[in-house]
Amino acid sequence: MASQGWEKVTSTDIARMVKQRTLPTAAALASKPAKYRNVKTLVDGERFDSQREAEHWIALRILEKAGTIMQLRRQVPHPLYAAARDVEGGATGVLREVCRYISDFEWYENGQHVVADAKGIRTKEYLLKRKWLELQDGITIREL
What's the pTM? Predict the structure, then answer.
């Protein structure tokens, strides 16, 4: 059963319509803006999720070279655990990794361990993981 109005359309007409249609190219799809408008950035061969994160990395590297901070690292995973339950719903005493918080930066400053995140948008997921990490390990995240 054909749709009404298409009885007299030829294959040449269809080819012309397809040619006129503006479909996004692979380059256009790749350049689609990110959900939170962050721009992926490359610094010294390292990829950063945003310009903000890259700028903080450059500033932290300068502080490390000056000796103000030590042992600077990026993308450090922190497993987040919850108590496992048995079939009846009782606690088993076993902890299971549920998810991970991955910090943007970590370093030592004046003997103190610092965990930092270059946040533009504080998502619900980030807020939950931040609170979970603080309750679980006593780590307070410094937002840059």
Answer: 0.71
